[in-house]
Amino acid sequence: MRTAVLSLGLALLCYLHAEAEELGAAGLDKSEIAGKWHIVALASDSESYLQKKDELKMAMATIAILGEGDLKVSFAIPSPGGCKKRESIYKPTGVPGEYHSSDRGNKTVQVVDTDGKTYAVIFASRVEDGKTLHMLRLYSRTQEVSPEITTLFKTIAREKGFTDEMIKMLPRQEECSVDGA
To answer: Which domain of life is it from (predicted)?
Structure first.
């Protein structure tokens, strides 16, 4: 019985991953990623992230589509000093699902997985002090994600070279929102 449940769970995970790949970057409809998102999980190889990851809480983002395919991303990030709000403009790179921003350093982001409705997995790279840093984020339309999507995120994180110590499911918070950003 236990083996059957595990097999069914693995089959569902494989199905979700295959379906998401079909809808992933190549088939991405930008209108599907527009709107309000909760950043419910992170994985990063940044030293500062690793030092502070236990203090982090769920952040929020709003994605708006601008002319010529640019994306305006507004963030609300809870911190000990209050709610930090930021905005960045990301321009398409020519690679499907990939965008670049020169705001606050050079950053490239890519939608690596999405179902087009409830979640998106975003991989970001930036160069800081001559070193390339990587971050994987799980975006969700709600503050809670299914166990299957959590497992999918962790699987993708491991495939990208992140260890379990680098992966963090973020606790909920209510005090910091993109509304009015």
So the answer is: Eukaryota
- Cα distances (angstroms) measured from residue 41 to each of 44, 150, 162: 10, 8, 13
DSSP H or E stretch at residue 51: helix 47-52
Give the pLDDT confidence of 148-173 residue by residue, as tens digits. Answer: 999 999 999 999 999 999 999 999 98
CATH class of 2-169: mainly beta
Residue 44: its H or E element:
strand 35-44
Q: Considering only CA atoms, which of 94, 90, 84, 83 is closest in space to residue 109?
A: 90
pTM: predicted TM-score of the whole model, two decimal places: 0.81
Taking only the tens place, the pLDDT of each residue in 128-143 is 888 899 999 999 999 9
Give DSSP secondary structure letters for 88-118: EEEEE-SSTTEEEE-TTS-EEEEEEEE-SSS
Q: How far is CA 181 from CA 62, 86, 104, 135, 158, in A?
A: 9, 8, 18, 23, 33
pLDDT at 27 over 50: yes
